[in-house]
C-alpha cells in the first residue's frame, strides 16, 4: 500500500476541495471542502437530501464528481488513471443496509476480499478474520449466514469485512439508520472502539449523542454546502447559522 | 425375461396393431437403445453449451460497449423469434455448405462438422438465447447495493460477476432455467430432420420397417421422454434445494 510520493502523515489523509456533483439537473454538492487528519473522527450531519451520503460515496469513487478534487493520502480519487483497487485498499466503507453477501457465511464475508482481491493465503486470512469477528463481538457466529443474524450483528460483520482489508480510512454511511434502537448501541460501541484505536473515521450519522461523544470535528451540511463546522464542544452549543440551529433544535 | 418376450411376440400375432417389436426383437431393441443414448448425449451437450452461452451472453449484456450489447440483442432476437426447426435446417444445409471438409481415407470428403455437430450447435444457440434472458432477469434481481459493497472492497467487474452476482442470480433463475432446459430436451427430437440417429429417428425407422409397431413405439416415445424429463427435473430440484441459503429470500 503506497501513498502518493510527497504525501506525509502530517498532511491531511483525506482532502476534499470545491467538490460539485449533480444528478441530472439536481446539484447535490455545490462546492464542498474539508480536510481530515490521520486518526481523526469526523461526523457529517444534516437534513435528508443535503448530500451527505453522496459526499462520502465520492470519497471512495462509488460516485464520480463533476468538479473539484478529492485526495486520499495525496492521491487524486477521480484521476481516470487511478488504480481504483489501490484506493479501495486504503478506504473501507460500511453501508446503511449492511450489503453483506447473503450466500456466504459471516466468516466467508470477512475473508472474501483479502483472498480474492489481495490474493493473500487463505489460512492467514482466516486467522485474521476470526480475530476480527471477535473484535466486533461476534464469536460463535462465524458460520451463520447473514439472513440468520440480526441487523446489528450483520452491520458488525460488515464492519469486520471492511477492516479485513486493513484500510487507513473508514467511511460509515448512516450505518445505524436501518437498525432497531436496541441494536444501534452495539454497532456504535464497535465504531467507538475503532476510533479509540486511532482509525481515521468519517461518519454520516443522525446519532447526535454519539457524534458529540466520539467526533473530533462535526460538519453540518444543508442543500449541498457545508453550513457550519466545529468541534463538538462548541458545535452543539454555539451554532451561529440559523439553519444549523433549526436542525439542532429539531433533533436534540 | 424370455417369458416377457414370448408374451409380446404372441400379442403381436393376436393384435396386429400392437406389435411391441422391441420387446422381443434384439435388433429393434438395439435401435431404441442407441437412439436413447444419442438423445441423452445430445441433451447433455446442448444443456451444457446453452447454459454457457446464457452466462456469457448475460455477462456481455452488461458490457459498457454499445456494440457488444447490440450484438447480444440481435442474437437473442434472431434465435428467439424464428422457429428452431428452420434454424436447424439452415445451419445444416446452408452453413454446412461452407464448412471445410477433410478426407481421412483420401477418397471421401467428410465435413468437419457432422450432422450431430450441427444439431448441437443449432439447438444450443436456440436455447442459449432464452438462457441469456433468463440469467439477465436473475442478474437484475441482485441488488445494486450488494454489488457496490463488492466494488468498494476492490473486486473487479469480473470478480463481482463470478462471486457475487452469478451465485445470487442463479438461485433466482433456477425455476425458469429448469423450464427452458425441459423444452430443450424435447426439442432435440427435431434433429431427426437432419438424420441425427436420435430416439425419434430410430423409432421412425422401426415403424417404417414394421408398420404394426407404430402405436407401441409412439407410446414408448412418450414414456421415455417423460422419464428423461423427470430425471432432469429431479436433478434441478435437488440442486435448487442444495443451493438454498439459510435465512435468505423468504
From TrEMBL, chain A:
Subcellular location as annotated: Cell membrane
SUPFAM superfamilies the UniProt entry points to: P-loop containing nucleoside triphosphate hydrolases
Main location: membrane
GO molecular function: ATP binding
Tagged with keyword ATP-binding: yes
Matching SMART domains: AAA (SM00382)
The keyword Nuclease belongs to this UniProt entry's keyword annotation: no
InterPro entries: AAA+_ATPase, ABC_ATPase_HisP-typ, ABC_transporter-like_ATP-bd, ABC_transporter-like_CS, MetN_ABC_transporter-like, P-loop_NTPase
Membrane topology: Peripheral membrane protein
Entry keyword set: Amino-acid transport, ATP-binding, Cell membrane, Membrane, Nucleotide-binding, Transport
Domain ABC transporter: 14-248
Family recorded in the similarity comment: Belongs to the ABC transporter superfamily.
UniProt-recorded name of the protein: Amino acid ABC transporter ATP-binding protein
Originating species: Paralimibaculum aggregatum
Automatic annotation (TrEMBL), chain B:
Bilayer-spanning residue ranges: 32-57, 78-96, 116-139, 160-177, 215-235
Coiled coil: none
Membrane topology term: Multi-pass membrane protein
UniProt-listed Pfam families: BPD_transp_1
Boundaries of every ABC transmembrane type-1 domain copy: 36-236
PROSITE patterns noted in UniProt: ABC_TM1
Top-rank taxon: Bacteria
Key word Phosphoprotein present: no
Major subcellular site: membrane
Localization annotation: Cell inner membrane; Cell membrane
Keyword Transmembrane applies: yes
Keyword annotations from UniProtKB, A to Z: Amino-acid transport, Cell membrane, Membrane, Transmembrane, Transmembrane helix, Transport
InterPro entries given in the database record: AA_ABC_transptr_permease_3TM, ArtM/GltK/GlnP/TcyL/YhdX-like, MetI-like, MetI-like_sf
Entry similarity comment: Belongs to the binding-protein-dependent transport system permease family. HisMQ subfamily.
UniProt protein name: Amino acid ABC transporter permease
Taxonomic source organism: Paralimibaculum aggregatum
Amino acid at each position: 500500500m503506497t501513498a502518493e510520493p510527497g504525501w506525509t502523515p502530517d498532511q491531511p489523509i483525506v482532502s476534499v476541495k470545491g467538490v460539485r456533483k449533480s444528478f441530472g439537473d439536481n446539484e447535490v454538492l455545490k462546492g464542498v471542502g474539508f480536510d481530515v487528519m490521520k486518526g481523526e473522527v469526523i461526523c457529517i450531519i444534516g437534513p435528508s437530501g443535503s448530500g451527505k451520503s453522496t459526499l462520502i460515496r465520492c470519497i471512495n469513487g462509488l460516485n464520480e464528481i463533476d468538479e473539484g478534487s478529492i485526495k486520499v493520502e495525496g492521491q487524486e480519487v477521480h484521476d481516470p488513471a487511478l488504480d481504483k483497487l489501490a484506493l479501495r485498499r486504503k478506504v473501507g466503507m460500511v453501508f446503511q443496509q449492511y450489503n453483506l453477501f447473503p450466500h456466504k457465511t459471516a466468516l466467508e464475508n470477512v475473508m472474501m476480499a483479502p483472498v480474492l482481491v489481495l490474493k493473500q493465503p487463505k489460512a492467514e486470512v482466516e486467522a485474521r478474520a476470526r480475530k476480527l469477528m471477535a473484535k466486533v463481538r461476534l464469536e460463535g457466529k462465524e458460520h451463520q449466514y447473514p439472513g440468520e443474524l440480526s441487523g446489528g450483528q450483520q452491520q458488525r460483520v460488515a464492519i469486520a469485512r471492511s477492516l479485513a482489508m486493513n484500510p487507513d480510512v473508514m467511511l460509515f454511511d448512516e450505518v445505524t439508520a436501518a437498525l432497531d434502537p436496541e441494536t444501534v448501541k452495539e454497532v456504535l460501541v464497535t465504531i467507538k472502539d475503532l476510533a479509540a484505536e486511532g482509525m481515521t473515521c468519517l461518519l454520516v450519522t443522525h446519532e447526535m449523542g454519539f457524534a458529540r461523544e466520539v467526533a473530533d470535528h462535526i460538519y453540518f451540511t444543508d442543500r449541498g454546502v457545508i453550513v457550519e463546522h466545529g468541534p463538538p464542544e462548541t458545535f452543539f452549543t454555539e451554532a451561529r447559522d440559523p439553519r444549523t440551529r433549526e436542525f439542532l433544535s429539531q433533533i436534540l | 425375461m424370455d417369458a416377457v418376450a414370448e408374451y409380446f411376440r404372441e400379442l403381436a400375432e393376436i393384435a396386429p396393431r400392437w406389435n411391441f417389436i422391441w420387446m422381443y426383437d434384439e435388433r429393434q431393441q438395439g435401435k431404441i437403445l442407441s437412439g436413447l443414448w444419442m438423445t441423452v448425449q445430445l441433451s447433455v451437450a446442448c444443456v451444457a453449451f446453452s447454459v454457457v452461452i446464457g452466462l456469457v451472453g448475460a455477462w456481455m449484456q452488461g458490457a459498457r460497449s454499445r456494440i457488444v450489447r447490440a450484438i447480444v440483442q440481435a442474437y437473442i432476437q434472431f434465435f428467439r423469434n424464428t422457429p428452431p426447426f428452420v434454424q436447424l435446417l439452415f445451419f445444416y444445409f446452408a452453413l454446412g455448405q461452407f464448412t471445410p471438409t477433410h478426407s481421412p481415407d483420401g477418397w471421401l470428403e467428410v465435413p468437419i462438422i457432422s450432422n450431430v455437430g450441427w444439431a448441437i450447435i443449432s439447438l444450443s444457440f436456440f436455447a442459449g438465447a432464452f438462457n441469456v434472458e433468463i440469467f439477465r432477469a436473475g442478474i437484475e434481481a441482485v441488488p445494486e447495493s450488494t454489488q457496490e459493497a463488492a466494488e468498494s472492497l476492490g473486486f473487479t467487474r469480473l470478480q463481482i460477476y463470478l462471486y457475487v452476482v452469478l451465485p445470487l442470480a442463479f438461485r433466482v433463475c433456477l425455476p425458469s432455467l429448469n423450464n427452458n432446459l425441459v423444452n430443450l430436451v424435447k426439442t432435440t427430437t427435431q434433429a431427426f430432420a437432419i438424420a441425427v440417429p436420435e430416439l425419434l429417428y430410430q423409432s421412425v425407422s422401426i415403424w417404417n420397417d414394421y408398420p404394426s409397431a407404430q402405436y407401441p413405439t409412439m407410446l414408448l416415445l412418450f414414456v421415455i421422454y417423460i422419464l428423461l424429463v423427470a430425471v432432469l427435473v429431479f436433478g434441478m430440484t435437488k440442486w435448487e434445494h442444495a443451493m438454498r441459503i439459510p435465512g435468505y429470500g423468504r
